[in-house]
Amino acid sequence: MTGSFKTSWDAIIAGGGLIGLSIAYGLSRRGLSVLVLDEDDTAIRAARGNFGLVWVQGKGAYFAPYADWTKRSADLWPQLASELETSSLPSLGLSQSGGLAICLSDSEMQQRKDKLDHLRAHQNGRFEFEMLDRQALAEIMPGIGPSVVGAAYCPHDGHVNPLFLMRALIAGIERHGGQFLAKTPLGSVEQIGTAMRIATPSGVFECQRLVLAAGLANAKLAPLVGLNQSLRPQKGQVIVTERLDQQLRLPSLLLRQTDEGGLMIGDSHEDADFDTGVTPEIVSGIADRALATLPALANVGVVRSWAALRVMSKDGYPIYDQSPTMPGAFAISCHSGVTLSAAHALDLAGYIAEGHLGTELLGFSEGRFHV
Amino acid sequence: MFRQISSPAGSALEINFEGKAVRAYAGETVAAALLRHNQMKFRNADANNSRGPYCMMGTCFECLVQIDGTPNQQACQAIVHDGMTIERQSAPLTGPIIPNPSEQGDN
Amino acid sequence: MQKRHFHLAVIGAGPAGLSAALAATKAGLEVILLDDQPDVGGQVYRQLTRNCKMKQPYLGQSYFSGRNMVDEMQHFSGVYAPRTTVWQITAERDIAIVVDGKAEMLSADYILIATGAIERPMPVTGWTMPGVMSVGGAQTLLKTSALGAENAVFVGSGPLLYLTIWQYLQAGLPVRAVLDITRPAQWRSVIAYAPLTLFQPKLLISGWKWLREIRRQCAFIPHVSSVDIIGTAHATGIRYETEHGAKGEFTSDHIFLHQGVMPNINLTMATGLHHRWNDHAHYWQPVVDQNGQSSDPHIYVAGDGGGIGGAAAAALAGTNAARAIIAKLKPETGISLPGGLLSQLCRWRAKAIRPFLDRLYLPPADMRLPQRDDTVVCRCENVRKADIDAALSNAVTGPNQLKAFCRAGMGRCQGRSCGIMVQEMIAAHHKQSLSQTGYYRLRPPVKPLTLAELASLNGPWPV
Predict the structure, then answer these.
(1) Among 3.90.45.10, 3.10.20.440, 3.50.30.20, 3.20.20.70, what is the CATH number of B12-90?
(2) Under a CB-based contact definition with an 8 Å cutoff, are residues A90 and A170 in contact?
(3) Is the pLDDT assigned to residue C163 strictly greater than 90?
(4) What is the mean pLDDT of residues B42-69?
(5) pLDDT given for residue B104 in this prediction
(6) Residue A200, in any domain of the structure
(7) Of A39, A175, C83, C248, which residue is 20 to 30 A from C213 by alpha carbon distance?
(8) How far apart are CA C73 and CA C5, in angstroms?
(9) Mean pLDDT of the A303-331 span
(10) Is A177 part of a structural domain of the chain?
(11) Cross-chain Cβ contact B107/A301 below 8 Å
(12) Binning pLDDT at 50, 70 and 90, where does residue C68 land?
């Protein structure tokens, strides 16, 4: 780096995905100077491979703090969207009019209902849902196939364009004076007084706050700040169709129409290490389920498919940790970067700026696995 | 205007473009038949944004038309057959592909 | 899932694929020849069998020279699969195809990818309007349907451009004008390569002949440095400016553009083979050894899809790749590779002139790249230069990030029309090399297929 690039920052964020960008934006809008370190254009990026759901139903059914945090984020989303949207950027396409989990068998319906009943029970009226039978579903979603049994409808669900969200977060960060360094992985971290000194291939930097939000790479980076995060990749495959006239009113877990008209259809849950290859048999099954859901889609063309790696902790819930040895350092991992973007930007960033993790996130430490 | 330089190889047949009868020849592509008929606009990508065939080899995906009710067919790849109906399309696809409940009986 | 299995699957039935498939079956290999067209010949010999019934002497010898190869299909003992789209090659080297609405997986010991070349884009104002086509497209219409546009304006440079105009003139078609974009600096830059032209004198003489006729019969404007196609609903004319500041305009409903060809790398890249940026020729090509073996020892590449060389070179490369595969599968045939010095020399000579042509006809940057804000760059998604410029920032260092932010490259063509331009725009913005900048990460399906076709593969829904 040349001498002219700033070396001292209020906050450095390692990771340019949705977690890192949301927190970086949140810090920058509070007046902190932020630097985002990112890898290169072709690095593994869950952020570029996700489905775009802003999803509440089912989350934290067996872990109330996660249900609370998720609902909080969904409630904050309109504020985030209105802050981020400017006339020079494409619209985020946020829609929070409810969502569906479509069931193709009675057992799917029952399993879903059980889960949501459980979720409602510990949410004291904050979580609403309704099980729709075939006829009721057909009114919202005309054209459902003969094997569709019904769906779970949740009014809190919605979706957004995740790629434009990334773009808007970056623009927001830049607007508040934040900067980016691509192709700059984190090297080493040292505590020097109250600050931390970060070494990277692009130079040495100092900061008061360091946030590790590098997705699966957090497993490797967390020890640099005296933390531990056991993460494993879980592969999910998605197909995308050509653009159609807007006709799907509500998003569902496995099928949604983007604001631009294409259908996103998923998905799978595979243990395949770091392999991001698309499997014809799997995407064929995904297509098959979509046609069982809406037979009229038969002639719609698939133009793209991909496989992305979800960042999974041991129990699938997020990890929020503050370093015991470097109190200004935090490590965050989750696989719901879209849904939680608002809470990360508007709540969590504030806690991090103040030097703590708030109260509602204390149960999310990696330490919960060592009880 | 396109001019027919030598006699076409195949026998004459009739296709239908946007409701009008068009002469075509067995073995040729839909794109060729339409261009011979001086039809160069195959679809609307947007308002004021018509598109027609460009590469003629199936790599640009500009020449998309609806053939016998099936949309997004590459006219430069599709071979004519007698009685084929071809229509322009707008992108995104015109009309709902999921049937409207008011038009349907019981689902 | 039971899959049909072959010794060799050849993808593409142009000169490279055809010659490989024929050679392989003659040696007793079980071969499937996968062709997305209804008949063999690829682009250069498209519909040759059918067209020999039409009287088309104006097409010239180069077209009909493919006759022998195409006729040999009568003796082909392998499986010929026409109208078949290959949409993926998996990591296990299975091949996903779709034909007649049904998808299927095949397996093969060896795969030869021979998917040929595509034309470079020429991003000028109005290039997406009806009436504007590539010169290759115009030539295809002439070859396959004997249709020629009257009073067309041709724009660009390169052998395909001059050949097509010459064919037009031979067919008696009036040509309104030829706007040649080759600049004096390009001639100067190829002086060192000039001796290579002596190895392909026939091509040199043909080129000379074509240009002489073109200059004689057409309004020929040299050193054109910018063009704008005009019209509202469709092309009605074209304005140009030359390097020396001369300006002019021609009226026409037909504008044909060409500024060179490049390997069609969509299947090879989606398959995960290693590619390199060829700085001299200014395109991506798969990394292959002298027999066409790619970074996967069971996948070979031959013909223009591995690097532009023309039809004759493609046929030799196809045969040579087949020989390499035959030697591996049937060592008892005693084939030795790389086939002796003479064979290597023949293959080299068949495209000796390429470095000269690549440099001479490499379009200048101001024709390779869009110059005006509202020029469409990504045709499929209607993304303009201004949209891409707005999305470029420090956080966007490569085409994949850019694609995510402005949709360029997300359409059906999967970057075939825009990829190379987007790459260059990013490289210029960040002042980094083209090689470093990279390309779109291409994924299956390499060509679109419908949900019904995809579902027909009969994959079970994962529990």
Answers:
(1) 3.10.20.440
(2) no
(3) yes
(4) 92
(5) 40
(6) yes
(7) C248
(8) 21
(9) 95
(10) yes
(11) no
(12) confident
A52 touches chain C (CB under 8 A): no
Residues of C with CB below 8 A from A260's CB? Answer: 407
Residues of chain A with pLDDT > 70: what percent?
99
- For residue A351 the two structure tokens come to 């806690």
Residue of C nearest to A168 (CA): C405
CA A322 to mean position of chain CA atoms: 20
Q: Pick from A271, A281, A293 the residue to mutate for testing the C interface (most C CBs within 10 Å).
A: A281
- The pLDDT-based confidence of A1 (bands split at 50, 70, 90) is very low
What's the gap in Å between the CA of A252 and the closest CA on chain B? 16
Touching A (3+ Cβ pairs <8 A), the chains are B, C
Q: Tell the burial category of A105 from Cβ atoms under 10 Å away from its Cβ (0-12, 13-18, 19+).
A: exposed
- Decide which of C132 and C336 is more confident: C132
Q: Which two tokens stand for residue C126?
A: 């109005």
Are residues A319 and A224 part of one domain? yes
Residue C159 makes CB contacts below 8 A (sequence gap 6+) with C203, C207, C357, C361
Per-residue pLDDT at A161 exceeds 90: yes
Q: Answer whether A302 sits within 8 Å of C449, measured CB to CB.
A: yes
CATH number of this structure's domain C369-437, picked from the four choices 1.10.357.10, 3.30.70.100, 1.10.10.1100, 3.40.50.1370? 1.10.10.1100
> Residue C338 has what pLDDT?
59
The pTM assigned to this predicted structure is: 0.94
The shortest CB-CB distance from A170 to any of C395, C455, C456 is to C395
User: For chain A, what is the mean pLDDT?
Assistant: 94
The highest-level CATH class for domain C4-118+262-337 is alpha beta
pLDDT of residue C463: 35
Neighboring chains of B (3 or more beta-carbon pairs < 8 A):
A, C
The tally of CA atoms less than 13 A away on the side-chain side of residue A76 is: 21
Distance from CA of A258 to the nearest CA of B (A): 12
**In A, residues 254-293, which contact C (CB 8 Å cutoff)?**
260, 265, 268-270, 275, 277-291
- The shortest C-alpha distance from B104 to chain C (Å) reads 22
Domain ranges of chain C: 4-118+262-337, 121-259, 369-437
- For residue C36, give how far its alpha carbon lies from the nearest alpha carbon of chain A (Å): 17
Over residues C16-27, the mean pLDDT reads: 96
pLDDT of residue C115: 97
- Phi and psi at A226, nearest 5°, equal 75, 20
The predicted-structure confidence for C370-399, as pLDDT tens digits, reads as follows 999 999 999 999 999 999 999 887 778 899
Contact C452 A299 (CB under 8 A): yes
Express as a percent the part of chain B with pLDDT over 90: 71
Q: Does B48 touch chain A (CB under 8 A)?
A: no
- Looking at residue C134, its pLDDT comes to 98
- Tell me the chain C residues in contact with residue A174 when contact means C-beta distances shorter than 8 Å: 393-394
Domain C121-259 annotated CATH 3.20.20.140: no
> Phi, psi at residue A151, to the nearest 5°?
-160, 160
What are the pLDDT digits (tens) for C226-238?
Answer: 999 999 999 999 9
Q: Per-residue DSSP letters for C60-106? A: -HHHHTTHHHHHGGGG--SEEETT-EEEEE-TT-EEEEEETTEEEEE
Reported confidence tier of residue C460, pLDDT bands at 50, 70, 90: very low
Give the distance from residue C151's alpha carbon to the nearest chain A alpha carbon, in angstroms: 37
Mean predicted confidence (pLDDT) in A292-300: 94
Q: Which residue has the higher pLDDT, C154 or C61?
A: C154
- Residue pair B76/B63 in contact by the 8 Å Cβ criterion: yes
Element (H, E) at A51: none
Residue whose entry in the numeric block shows the structure tokens 């957090």: A218
Instruction: Note whether residue A116 is domain-resident.
Output: yes
**C-alpha dihedral sign at C378, C383, C384, C387:** negative
Q: Of C141, A263, C172, C324, give the one whose Cα is nearest residue B8.
A: C141
In-domain check, residue A225: yes
